[in-house]
Amino acid sequence: MTLASQAAPSGRTAAAPAFLRNIVVDPWLFGIFAVTTLSVLVFAALPIFIVLKQAVVTEHGFDIAVLISTLSQSFVWESLANTLLLGATSALIATAAGFLLAFSATRTTMPGKIFVHGVALLPIISPPFVMALAVVILFGRSGLITRELLGIRNANVYGFHSLVLIQSLAFTPIAYLNIRGMLQSIDSALEDASASLGASRWTTFSRVTLPLVTPAILSSTLLVFVKSVEDFGNPMLIGGNFNTLAVEAYSQMVGYFNLQAGALLASLMLVPSMTAFLIHRYWVSKRSYVTVTGKPSAQTIRISGAVVVPLTIACYAIVLAILLFYLTVIYVSFTRLPGVDNTLTTAHYVTVFTAGFHTLSNSLLLAGIATPVTAIAGMLIAYLLIRKAFPGSFLLRWGTLLSFAAPGTILGIGYVSTFNAPPLLLTGTAFIVIAAMVVKNLQVGIEAGSNQLRQIDKSIEEASTILGASNTRTFFQITLPLLKPALFTSLSYAFTRSLTTLSAVIFLVSANWTLITVTILSQVETLKLGVAAAYCSILVFVVLAILALMQLVLNSTSKR
Question: What gap in Å lies between CA 411 and CA 417, rounded to an integer?
Fold first, then answer.
């Protein structure tokens, strides 16, 4: 049998519609698609739909007067404007900082790359509100810098500017990891060809490197914007009078016990998030970013000399600012009573390793289960959406978009409302917490995989199919290995965010499955800052150790 006869479809298959041919050619892959789509609809779309229904339907049914009354309040539109302003500003700054770090680490001879890489990941491996606590300790009314060093009394650290600083630094790792993965996968021969034709460094950067990394820049801006819009911990602790939709929704649900108003306010966050996704999809679909063609290539460092100096200074300014905040948290973890009695003690760590060890082990176990599921599912869904056209693909695409765009609070409330009765009675179990972790972080893996797939020439997979391999075998033996940078990005993000997530799981924890982030928040609420800082410090060191182990495994497989 010739290769041509192997590749040619049968007469019955050729005569079938295109979407039926895709099913007949590889029914196993379609089965995976069907199971994946059903899971996304049940665990992502359905809970969000339940919350949206609660936002517009009261106990007396649909009442337009209640909606008008809620939407006519001035704080609703003020919170919406504040949320959009904070999200856009944080997204632009964090993406620029992430690109600077990623470009310097992959394209220049900047010294101390391992140090920069390690410190740049710190904000992503701790609860977001940790940096807010550090800012208050350093620059508040009794701050170590404002009061102790500068002698400034009654310093006002609350408001928009502090939120922008905190969120920009806290979400920079998202952009850094995403852009770094794509820069590492770009074929160096393209930039070498530009240089050999006489182009300057700036011309090569602006006309070759930057356009090829555009999908990662856009998706990073999108991801940071969405994370900033839904962030609850930082605006709650340091927002002051600068209220956001997340804080107002929480206040309505918890403070005023108005579930309908809280659900409606939280639902408004879907509008800017979904708009950002649509803009991103439209932009990327108009361009081609193929750079991985199957030809041998090697990544080389080509930028050295004087241009490296300003890049190095800017990168070190970012990482030193991050390091200052986290060293402050570590220092507070060893003080007896921060701001009052700064005597050094280890009593807080004794508390963590005795009474609080159960919560740490729970978090590590559940995050360890959720991480590979999130990463593999993200790569698989990206492949199904980018490379295949099964009937019902739009359900999978919109289901995953909704799960990521929806605030964690909506997802948590939706899970409680949806899975609190048979046949899916999951409330109080470990499974519901794992499902929330997977659903909330799934889109990051999809974005990373989609960006990588747009760089891989389809002819590589077509060659595998022509040689007789099924689509399923082609994915696992050809496509998935080429997605290694994106897979590592997804694994890193999924593990760290599963460990540090708060808003999506705070409604789902039980006596048997208490998580470390919920424990940290309770310690902060009771003003036990030393114990909270000790929990955060241990969490940071544990995650750093596991990420270092993952990096060693990735490097060893790359060498082989």
Answer: 10
Whether residue 117 has pLDDT greater than 80: yes
* Interval 488-532: pLDDT, tens: 778 887 888 888 887 778 778 887 888 888 888 788 777 787 888
pLDDT in tens, 340-361: 677 889 999 998 888 788 888 8
Q: Phi and psi dihedrals of 305, rounded to 5?
A: 95, -155
Q: Tens of pLDDT along 327-338?
A: 988 988 898 877
- Contact assessment for residue 413 and residue 507, using Cβ atoms and an 8 Å cutoff: yes
Classify each residue of 206-219 as buried b or exposed e, where b means 16 or more C-beta atoms within 10 Å of its C-beta: eebbeebbebbbbb
Query: Residue 513: left (phi > 0), alpha (psi -120 to 50), or beta?
Result: beta
Q: Dihedral (C-alpha) 322, 325, 329, 330: value to the nearest 10 degrees?
A: 60
pTM for the full predicted model? 0.73
The amino acid sitting at 23 is I
Residue 470 makes CB contacts below 8 A (sequence gap 6+) with: 26, 28, 29
Pairing status of strand 57-58 against strand 61-62: antiparallel
Tokens, residue 120: 């740049």
Write out the two tokens for 368. Answer: 């360890």
The type of residue at 478 is I
Please answer whether residues 221 and 490 qualify as being in contact, where contact means their C-beta atoms are separated by less than 8 angstroms: no
- Render 311-361 in DSSP notation, one character per residue: HHHHHHHHHHHHHHHHHHHHHHHTEEETTTEEEE--HHHHHHHHTTHHHHH
pLDDT tens digits along 212-254 = 788 788 888 888 888 888 887 788 778 888 888 888 877 777 7
Least Cα distance to 499 among 553, 442, 434 occurs for 434
Q: Which residue has the tokens 């408001």?
A: 159
- Other Cβ atoms less than 10 A from the Cβ of 12: the count is 9
Task: Report the C-alpha gap between 360 and 528 in whole angstroms.
Answer: 18
